[in-house]
Amino acid sequence: MHLSADDWSAIRLTLELAGIVTVLLLMVGTPIAWWLATTRSRLRSVVGAVVALPIVLPPTVLGFYLLIVMGPDGPVGMLTRSLGLGGLPFTFAGLVVASVFYSLPFVVQPIQNAFMAMGPRPLEVAATLRASPWGSFFHVALPLARPGFITAAVLGFAHTVGEFGVVLMIGGNIPGKTQVLSVQIYNHVEALEYGQAHGLAAGLVMFSFLVLLILYSVGGVRNTLGAGR
Amino acid sequence: MTDLQLVCRLPLADFALDVDLTLPGRGVSALFGPSGSGKTTLLRCVAGLARAAGRVQINGECWQDDGRRVFLPTHRRALGYVFQEASLFAHLSVRANLEFGLKRIPAAERKVGWDTALALLGIGHLLERGTQSLSGGERQRVAIARALLTSPRLLLMDEPLAALDAKRKQEILPYLERLHDELAIPVLYVSHSPDEVARLADHLVLLEQGRVLASGPTRDLLTRLDLPLALDEDAAVRVDATVLSHDDTYHLTCLGFAGGHIQVTRKPLAVGAKAHIKIQARDVSIALAGDNRSSIVNRLPARILGFGDAAHPAQCLVRLEVGGAPLLARITRLSRDQLGLVEGMSVVAQIKSVALLG
Predict the structure, then answer these.
(1) What CATH number corresponds to the domain at position B241?
(2) Which of A105, B75, B98, B127 is buried most, with the most CB atoms less than 10 Å from its CB?
(3) Which residues in chain B are closer than 8 Å to A126, comparing Cβ atoms?
C-alpha cells in the first residue's frame, strides 16, 4: 500500500487540526461545562440546546451558516477583515474555528457530566478547608473530573478527525491547506482510486478503534459515556 | 465575648428557620432534634455554606452581620466542618487530604499540630493509603483530623456518626471525647441521637420546625420531662463521677458522685480519675424505703420530683433527685399507683446497670 505525498500531507494536516481544535475546545468548553453544571439560570436550557445543536444538525447546514457568518459580508468576516486578518473561509484558521463549533458538544457534555456527577459536596469541603473558589476549582474540581476530561479530549479529537461536511463547506479541498483526511478519501473514491481510499480509510478505522479501546480499558469513558454511574 | 451568637432566619420548604441563640464559647454544644428540624441548615448557615439573614459571631469574631453588611465566604471563616459522610477527596491520599487544609493556613495560626491530630484520631498508620481502602470509621476519623488541622476556632460536626453502624460508632466516640477533653476548640454538634448527646454535649439546643424549643446545660435538659428527649426509648442521664476505690474480692469499682456511691464491674481506671457514666431510665426502678434486701447493688435514697409521660402509655417517667443529682426512672403506671408514689416522696432508686462513658 503506497500513500502519495498528498495523502501524507492530508494526514499531517488532519492531526494538526484535531490537535489544535482539541486544545482550544478544552479551554473554551471547560467554562461552558462548568457554567452548565452549576448554574441555576433559566438560560441554562437555552445554552445547553445551542451547544448540542451540532449533534443533530447535518454538518452541511452548520458549515453553510458558518460560511455565511465568516464570509466577506458576514459579521465575523467583516470583523476579521477590519482587524486585518483577512477572510476565514478556505483557510486553515477557518477550519479550526468551524471545527471548534462542530465538536463543541462532544467536549462540553462529558465535562459537564463529570462536574455534575461530582456534585457540590467536594467544593463545599474544599471551602471549609480554606480553599478559595479558584483553588477549589483547580485542586478539587478539575482532578475529580479527570475521566470526563479524558473522554472529552478523545471525543473532541476523534470527532474533528472524522469531520467532512463542515470542512467541505468552509475549507474546500486545498492540498496542504485545507485538504484533510476525510476529504482526501472522498477525492480518491471520486477518482476511483479504491486502493488508496482503502489505505486511508482502513487507517482511520484502526486509529478510531485503538483510541476507543485504550479509553475503555483505562475505564475513563464508562463514567461519562455509559449509562451514568 | 467568649460565646457563640447565632441569629439566623431562612425560609425553608415547609417552615422557616428562625433561631436566636447564645451558646457557650467552649465545650460541645449539641443541636438536637428530629430529622428535618433545621439542624443541618443552621450549621450550614454558621459555615456560610447557606445564606440566612442574621448574624454569626464566634467568640468575638464576626463572620456575618447583616446590619453591617458583613458576610465572610466559607473559606475565610476559621472553621472546621465534618460532614455526615466523610467526603474525603478521592483523588488524594490520606496524607494529601490532611495537608489540604493545613497548608492553606499561615504557619503562625497552626495551633493543632500534625502529630497531635494524628495521635488524637489514631490515624498515623493510614497516611500513605488511598481513601478508597479505608473503612467507614477510618474515613470519618481522617475527615475529623483534616478539619482539626486547620486549627479552627469553631468545629462544626454534622452527625458525623450517622452514616456508621453501631460498632463503628463505638469505635469513634472515644476519639470525639478525647477531642472534647484535650482541645479547647468549641464544637457545634448536630445529632438526633440522645445517646451521643448525653455522652458528648455540655450544652444542648433542642430544635423543632426551625425553632429553638429549649437551650441549656445538657444535664438539665435531659431530665426535663416536658421536653421530647425524655420520651425517647433511650432516655438517660449523664453523671460525672470520680473513681474512689477498687474491690478485688468482688471485682467491682466504686464511683463517687453528688448523689453517693455507685459500684460497677471493675474498670481499668486509676483511683481519683474522672469517669462519665450514663444511667438509662429503663435501668432504674423504684422501691419503697425500708426493705434493704435485693440483688441490686446500687440502691440510693432519692426523692421524687415529678412524673412525665414515656413513649409507651403503659409506662411513665419519674424524675428523681439523688443528693442533688438528677436521675430518671421508667416504671409502669401500674407500679406507680400500687406503690402510691407521689411528688416529694422519699424512695429508693435501684440502679440495675450503669454504662461507663470513658
Answers:
(1) 2.40.50.100
(2) B98
(3) 75, 89, 100
According to the model, what pLDDT value does residue A212 have?
A: 82
Task: Give φ, ψ of B121 to 5 degrees.
Answer: -100, -5
Across the interface, of A129, A133, A144, the residue whose CB is closest to B100 is A129
Q: Reduce the DSSP state of residue B45 to 3 states and report it.
A: helix
Are residues A13 and A182 in contact, defined by beta-carbon separation less than 8 angstroms?
Answer: no
Instruction: Say if strands B346-351 and B284-288 run parallel, antiparallel, or are unpaired.
Output: antiparallel
Task: Mark yes or no for CB contact B89/A128 under 8 Å.
Answer: no
Burial class (CB within 10 angstroms; exposed 0-12, middle 13-18, buried 19+) of B157: buried
User: Which SS3 state, helix, strand or coil, does residue B72 take?
Assistant: coil
Q: Give the three-state DSSP class for B71.
A: strand
Question: Are B194 and B153 in the same domain?
Answer: yes
B42 and B114 both lie in a single domain: yes
Contact B8, B42 (CB under 8 A): yes
CA pair distance B211, B225, nearest whole angstrom: 19
Do A125 and B87 count as a contact with CB atoms less than 8 A apart?
yes
Alpha-carbon distance B186 to A168, whole Å?
A: 68
Q: What is the rounded CA–CA span in Å between residue A131 and residue A138?
A: 10
* Separation CA B34–CA B23 (nearest Å): 20
Q: What domain range is B343 assigned to?
A: 236-356
Residues of B in contact with A139 (CB under 8 A): 100
**Minimum CA–CA partner of A129 in chain B:** B101
B101–A129 C-beta distance less than 8 A: yes
Shared domain for B93 and B167, answered yes or no, is yes
Domain boundary residue, one of B159, B193, B222: B222
Final residue of a domain: which of B222, B246, B263? B222
- Residue A167's CB is within 10 A of a number of other CB atoms, namely 27
Q: From A124, which residue of chain B is nearest by alpha-carbon distance?
A: B49
Q: What is the CATH number of domain A5-225?
A: 1.10.3720.10
Low-confidence ranges of chain B (pLDDT < 70): 1, 225-226, 228-233, 290-292, 358
**pLDDT for residue A30:** 96
Q: d(Cα A219, Cα B323) in Å, to the nearest integer?
A: 67
Measured CA to CA, the distance from residue B197 to residue B189 in angstroms comes to: 9
**Domain range summary for chain A, segments of one domain joined by +:** 5-225
Cell numbers at residue B137, please? 470509621
CATH number, domain containing residue B205: 3.40.50.300
Name beta bridge partners: B328: B319
Total domains, chain B: 2
Q: Return d(Cα B161, Cα B33) in angstroms, integer.
A: 15
Chain A residues whose CB is inside 8 A of the B80 CB are 128
Question: Looking at this predicted complex, what is its ipTM?
Answer: 0.78
Cell of A83: 482587524
User: Would residue B215 count as lying in a domain?
Assistant: yes
Where residue B231 falls (left for φ over 0; alpha for ψ -120 to 50; beta otherwise) is: alpha
| Rounded mean pLDDT, A75-81 | 87
Are B49 and B187 in the same domain? yes
Co-location of B209 and B248 in the same domain: no
User: What is the helix, strand, coil percentage profile of chain A, to 5?
Assistant: 80, 0, 20
The model's pLDDT over A136-152, given as tens digits with 9 standing for 90+, comes to: 999 999 999 998 999 89
